[in-house]
Amino acid sequence: MIGIEGQPILTAAEMRAAEAAVIATGVSVETLMERAGTAIAGAVRRLAGSNDVLILCGPGNNGGDGYVAARVLAEMGVAVRVAALSEPRAEAAKAARARWRGPVDPLADVKPAPILVDALFGTGLTRALGVIETQTPSSPPAEAGAQLGNAIDEPPGSPNWTPASAGGGFVVEKLHTLATAAHLTIAIDLPSGLATDSGQALSTPPVFDLTLALGAVKPAHLLQPAARYCGQIRLLDIGVPATSQAEVLTAPILPTPGPDSHKYTRGMVAIVAGTMSGAADLAALAAMRAGAGYITLLGDSHGPPHALVRAPFSEHALANDRIGALVIGPGLGRDDTARTRLDAALSAGHPMIIDGDALRLIDPERIKALKVSVILTPHAGEFDALFGKSDADKITRARDAAARANAVVVFKGADTVIAAPDGRVRIAQGASDWLSTAGTGDVLAGAIGAMLALGLDPLAAAGAGVWFHGDAARRLGAAFIADDLADALRYARAAL
Predict the structure, then answer these.
(1) Could you tell me if residue 179 is left (phi over 0), alpha (psi between -120 and 50 degrees) or otherwise beta?
(2) Rounded distance between C-alpha atoms, residue 298 and residue 311, angstroms
(3) Do 276 and 241 belong together in one domain?
(4) Domain check: are 219 and 292 in the same one?
(5) Residue 406 domain flag
(6) What single-letter DSSP state applies at residue 108?
(7) 2 with 31: CB under 8 angstroms?
(8) pTM, entire model
């Protein structure tokens, strides 16, 4: 099992293409399935100890992986049972079922076990399981996946199709019942009922302890709401090379100060204050704690820390050519003064982080016209206001926005997506739910400002700031406030 930091993220179609490329070299689907099932068995064996294992197999190749895993576990001496939704439909899955010599119980009748393995429906599912159950034979045919790990539903109207054999609402209920009775729950590729690419929960599965991603990380492992059901994510190598412009965010590699360092070599960040100066204060404190050497806050602000340089806002102050990053938006307001300050900041010619209120006072075309590096940090409401609403998935929306504005976009949330104009994407692993408190976005803006002032390219700066932000939150645990978070950035930075 491999940790997923830095790993490529593949959509269902990209995974199918990667598998097809391997198959084109002469490797059979059956061989890929054998690799996947053997890897699953090895992981389950290490975690199960002496406990009995129950594997739930679906009609597609995800179920085929489950049959292989069951056979290999039995060969290892593990007490394993198999329950199935229906007979396999895919040829490779049929072959895997034939090699399993034990009994196969109907899913509806199977009894719980301490270790539950869900191999019912993995990637490729496009409909809620309850919808499948209530279809009539005249309903549109189900989309059938063709390669390893895809959920394959029997098309309505075919000789073998019935609502029960195709799966349905009882599957969700049974999954919850079996999961509640289990000591450890493991999903193969994805918990059944999740949409691979969008992260939608087509049905509501139980929350699994562990999900074993086959060959590559998928968007649903990281996008909400699907990610909340996956538990810990670990990657299994099945011999399918995976490359992608999208990757899981990883810890940054940053220089540490040396004997020749001084405050300006560590980066100077200027932060524009507005009507709510406390937000700018938080961004300034975050930039300091993230490692910037010199922070100047331009506007009305009072109080500690005394290391923060405060000055009246002016175009002269903005003209300092030592400024490595300019942060504007936290607490800026939306009045005429805010607009004037934003206009001056946009004309100053410094790399910028545009956050908060400033995102409501600007449009993508104006951002695109800037001749400096720009990082935008919208939450969902700000994103909709700036780029418009859409039903597209979060990765697609962030990519399109980055290209439209020619800026790095940090689409914040429990599933923060960072996109560059050239299509590169970094997705952060699940954030602390306790970040849902006022001021944490201001802290993020300041942390990213410190990274941009250090000289990182905009995508790397945004990724480093997001990583520090998430790591600091994890260190704090529960019920922290934004002031605590800003201060905790120094511990996140020191841990590198």
Answers:
(1) alpha
(2) 5
(3) no
(4) no
(5) yes
(6) G
(7) no
(8) 0.91
